[in-house]
């Protein structure tokens, strides 16, 4: 009997310990819930209760309803107002007048990873948490990617556009259907490759290879969005993320056998670009500020020979990451805007005819330069509307002030150490700024200088300041030159293409149409100018 009682005692004690542990855990959980909802520094901001308790609120939409969270944000702001708590430690803002307070590039305001890391892993041009770190990494690259350098290499862009001109010439007057958006993607990728490394990928002559590459990129964006929602995007070495993208997209691989081939091709191509750049660099002297902007060498070589270059710029991982960012950011976003603008021009013949008339006048004294084309009022309006309606980056831009509270307006303060964010959608589609925001209306940009300046205050598709997209000037030149050269020369019509094919409603960090890629198909009715 005594033995049985002795054996029973540990079991009873274990049961009691487990019971006490469960009670303490539940008490802790209840305490955390009460704290998050009523005593947390962000508790005064409205929003879904579940979002205040866990970041899984966003993860649910990112994984179960992929790419729809920006639309969820619209509904939340319609219900709760301009300031909504969308996570335990994050406030999303819809008031456009708060933009400058959040994105003023103060040294106090950093990017952040949702997992709480202040300095994302991986280095390179993209993802530097602090303004100072970003400046260090970008400084060698700024002159060779500057407006001055792009102007000096304008012929490079025109030569690539000429390849598309030849394709359109061959299709002129026939019943051939051309996916102009595919050519725009090939154009922007070949341009950024030539500009950066002195050699293109020959995608304009090999659309099959181009489509393999873009299938890989789309797989990357899809999974990168999901990794970011889990706070892992900057904690995983970039190429592991790519492999996981492919593994998790193996269903797509079966449907598209070229996916893995495209991945391998692209990886090897980028490695070759980086290797060739380093080998060429060995025979070049250190540069100066003047020579860095000379435009005589490919941009990456100009950057690497800069006197501002430090050892961190020469690591293979950093170079590879930088090349990867420049290729993707310098191609997909610009091509998407090109496709959107092309669709809206062809869907609005009266606007197209007016644009053609203005371009005919611009060509009266000979082919105008990019800077001349920027002075064509309606063309500028077309470019700005294409960028606005396309959105570009659809993901919100989180910032965190580690040093002090951030005053957004007279009544709203974000405590230090907590995340604040905005999204392009709440600027570009705001009816108070852009009346009838879903309408393609280039004339909104051709009004008085004061009105245009007011609109430009809220129009930052490439960000601004030290965080501005590195390839901003290249993108601008491509948009002006491609629209002018192609739409001045040809009368085209849309074929089997609707607005649903171009409206970007899916968030994969970049914005994508419902089908997963932009498609603008055209027939070339005739040539109207040489």
Q: How would you sum up this structure in a few lines?
A:
The chain is α+β, with helices and mostly antiparallel strands.
Kindly describe this structure.
- It is a single chain.
- By secondary structure, the chain is α+β, with helices and mostly antiparallel strands.
- The chain has 2 domains: 1-39; 131-527, Cytochrome p450 (Orthogonal Bundle), CATH 1.10.630.10.
- 54% of the residues lie in helices and 9% in strands.
- It is built from 23 helices and 12 strands.
- It has helices at 2-39, 49-53, 56-64, 69-80, 99-102, 131-138, 147-152, 154-171, 180-197, 207-229, 238-248, 250-255, 258-281, 289-292, 299-304, 316-329, 332-347, 349-362, 370-373, 377-390, 425-428, 449-456, 472-489; strands spanning 83-87, 90-93, 109-110, 178-179, 397-401, 406-407, 413-414, 419-422, 490-494, 504-508, 510-513, 521-527.
- The strands form 4 sheets. The chain has a 5-stranded mixed beta sheet with strand order 1-2-8-5-3. Strands 4-12-9 form a 3-stranded antiparallel beta sheet. A two-stranded antiparallel ribbon has the order 6-7.
- Helix 8 (154-171) packs parallel to helix 23 (472-489) and helix 10 crosses helix 11.
Q: What oligomeric state do these chains adopt?
A: single chain
- List the strand order in the largest sheet: 1-2-8-5-3
Q: Compute the gyration radius: what is it?
A: 26 Å
Q: Helix coverage percent of residues?
A: 40-55%
């Amino acid at each position: 009997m005594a033995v049985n009682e002795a054996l029973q005692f540990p079991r009873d004690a274990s049961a009691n310990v487990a019971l006490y542990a469960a009670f303490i855990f539940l008490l802790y959980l209840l305490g955390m819930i009460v704290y998050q909802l009523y005593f947390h520094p962000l508790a005064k901001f409205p929003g879904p209760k579940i979002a205040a308790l866990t970041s899984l609120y966003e993860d649910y939409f990112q994984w179960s309803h992929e790419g729809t969270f920006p639309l969820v944000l619209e509904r939340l702001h319609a219900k709760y107002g301009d300031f909504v708590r969308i996570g335990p430690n994050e406030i999303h803002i819809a008031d456009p007048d708060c933009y400058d307070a959040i994105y003023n590039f103060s040294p106090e305001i950093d990017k952040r990873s949702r997992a709480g890391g202040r300095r994302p892993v991986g280095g390179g041009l993209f993802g530097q948490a602090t303004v100072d770190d970003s400046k260090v990494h970008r400084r060698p690259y700024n002159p060779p990617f500057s407006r001055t350098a792009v102007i000096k290499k304008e012929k490079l862009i025109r030569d690539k556009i000429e390849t598309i001109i030849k394709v359109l010439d061959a299709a002129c007057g026939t019943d051939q259907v051309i996916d102009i958006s595919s050519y725009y993607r090939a154009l922007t990728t070949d341009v950024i490759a030539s500009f950066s490394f002195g050699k293109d990928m020959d995608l304009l002559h090999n659309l099959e290879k181009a489509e393999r590459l873009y299938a890989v990129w789309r797989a990357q964006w899809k999974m990168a969005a999901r990794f970011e929602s889990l706070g892992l995007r900057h904690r995983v070495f970039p190429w592991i993320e790519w492999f996981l993208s492919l593994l998790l997209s193996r269903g797509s691989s079966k449907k598209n056998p070229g996916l893995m081939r495209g991945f391998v091709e692209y990886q090897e191509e980028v490695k070759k670009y980086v290797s060739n750049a380093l080998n060429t660099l060995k025979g070049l002297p250190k540069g100066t500020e003047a020579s860095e902007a000379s435009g005589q060498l490919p941009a990456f070589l100009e950057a690497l020979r800069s006197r501002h270059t430090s050892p961190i710029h020469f690591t293979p991982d950093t170079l590879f990451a930088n090349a990867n960012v420049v290729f993707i950011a310098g191609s997909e976003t610009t091509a998407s805007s090109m496709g959107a603008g092309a669709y809206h021009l062809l869907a609005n013949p009266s606007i197209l005819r007016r644009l053609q008339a203005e371009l005919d006048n611009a060509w009266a004294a000979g082919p105008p330069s990019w800077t001349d084309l920027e002075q064509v009022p309606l063309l500028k309006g077309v470019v700005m509307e294409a960028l606005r309606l396309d959105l570009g980056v659809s993901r919100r831009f989180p910032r965190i002030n580690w040093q002090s509270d951030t005053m957004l307006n007279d009544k709203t303060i974000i405590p230090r150490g907590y995340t604040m964010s905005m999204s392009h959608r709440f600027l570009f589609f705001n009816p108070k700024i852009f009346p009838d925001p879903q309408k393609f209306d280039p004339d909104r940009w051709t009004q008085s200088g004061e009105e245009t300046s007011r609109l430009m205050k809220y129009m930052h598709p490439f960000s601004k300041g030290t965080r501005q997209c590195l390839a901003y000037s290249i993108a601008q030149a491509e948009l002006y030159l491609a629209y002018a050269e192609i739409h001045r020369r040809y009368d085209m019509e849309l074929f089997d293409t609707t607005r649903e094919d171009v409206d970007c409603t899916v968030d994969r960090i970049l914005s994508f149409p419902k089908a997963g890629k932009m498609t603008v198909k055209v027939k070339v009715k005739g040539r109207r100018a040489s």
